[in-house]
Amino acid sequence: MRNRRINQGIVAATVVVCAASGLGAPSNADDGGDDSLERAQRAEQRTASGVAATETRLTELSAKANRLKLTAAQAEAESITAQQELSTSISKAVEAQEAANAAEANLAQARRRIGRLARESYREGSSPLKGARLVGGTKTAAEAYKRARAYRILANKTNRDVSAFENARANAVTLQKAADQKAKEESAKASQAQQAVAEASQASTKARSEVESIAQERNALVSRLAAQKGVTAELVKQQREQKEAAAESKAEAERQAVVVAAQKKVEAEAQAEARKQAEVQAEAQKQA
After folding, report:
1. Strand (E) or helix (H) holding 166
2. What does the pLDDT look like over 160-203, one tens digit per residue?
3. pLDDT tens across 46-93, in order?
4. How far apart are CA 72 and CA 255, in angstroms?
5. Rounded to whole angstroms, what are the CA distances from 233 to 61, 225, 230, 270?
6. Which residue ranges make up each domain of the chain?
7. What's the CA gap between 242 and 248, in Å, rounded?
8. Mean pLDDT of 196-212
9. 222 with 55: CB under 8 angstroms?
10. Buried/exposed 68-78: b ≥16 CB within 10 Å, e otherwise
11. What is the DSSP string of 173-204?
């Protein structure tokens, strides 16, 4: 009986000790490990989100840079066209004035011929009576005929020279008016062309400046992306170049096409103008 009481006391004491020490309760030893894993997962998700955001921004900047480069190429094409228009306007005004100057030179030459005829007529006389006396003073009919014929030739030449002078004077006046009008018209066109060249230059400069700013931002993003991925910036840069190579190649081809088209247009217009001038000169030589 006594031994049973002793054993019961030992069991009761053991239960108390176990309860006090927590040996009989569920264990919470894994709670700290779960928290660490969750924190690691959240950090990984943040990194992935950051990488995705950086990648997206780099793609956006690449597309924007290509658009700006195309804008610069279009501005260059507009400048090429405007410069050709400016050159053409100046050439047309100069050609018109040269034609007027040539007409004035012809007028001066005709004026000198008229002056000589006037002096000759004053010395020898050109009235019908004077001509009759010249014929009447001859000794033979043959001599009289020769003198009369010479007189008619002189009179005809005088009439031709006078007519040529009048035509030259009218032509000089007409061409000078045309040259003045052409100068006025082409001056306005030249001003517009100069303005177009200036605007194209400003647009190109602005676009290129923005492209440079984008390049700086891209470099910073590449460094950030490299840090996020735990790799070198050079590796990230190479990866981006490979990823964007197709789009960049397509954009470059489009830019080149814009500039080449403008150059071909200018060359074609210049050749057409040269042919036109050659035809005009050939026609003038025929009429001369």
Report:
1. helix 141-229
2. 777 878 888 888 899 899 899 988 888 888 888 889 899 999 99
3. 778 888 899 999 999 999 999 999 999 999 999 999 999 898 889 889
4. 9
5. 17, 8, 9, 50
6. 53-270
7. 10
8. 92
9. no
10. bbbbbbbbbbb
11. HHHHHHHHHHHHHHHHHHHHHHHHHHHHHHHH
Give the Cβ contact number of residue 197 at 10 Å.
Answer: 18
- DSSP-derived letter for residue 126 is -
Q: What is the pLDDT of residue 288?
A: 55
Long-range contacts of 181-184 (CB under 8 A, 24+ apart): 182/92, 182/93, 182/96, 182/97, 183/93, 183/96, 183/97
Q: Angle of helix 31-124 relative to helix 141-229, nearest 10 degrees?
A: 170
Look up residue 231 and give its two tokens.
Answer: 């790799």
Per-residue burial over 16-53, b if 16 or more Cβ lie within 10 Å, else e, is eeeeeeeeeeeeeeeeeeeeeeeeeeeeeeeeeeeeee
Taken in order 63, 69, 70, 75, is the CA torsion positive or negative? Answer: positive
Read off the tokens for 101: 């100057």
Q: For residue 214, what are the contacts with CB-CB under 8 A and spacing of at least 6?
A: 61, 64, 65, 68
Print burial letters for 211-241: b (CB count within 10 Å at least 16), e (below 16): beebeeebeebbebbbebeeeeeeebbebbe
Residue partners of 217: CB distance under 8 A and separation at least 6: 61
Give the type of residue at 160.
Answer: R
Q: How far apart are CA 131 and CA 259, in angstroms?
A: 76
Q: Using the structure block, give the residue that is written with the tokens 């590796």.
A: 235
Q: How far is the CA of 172 from the CAs of 118, 157, 177, 213, 218, in angstroms?
A: 22, 22, 9, 60, 67
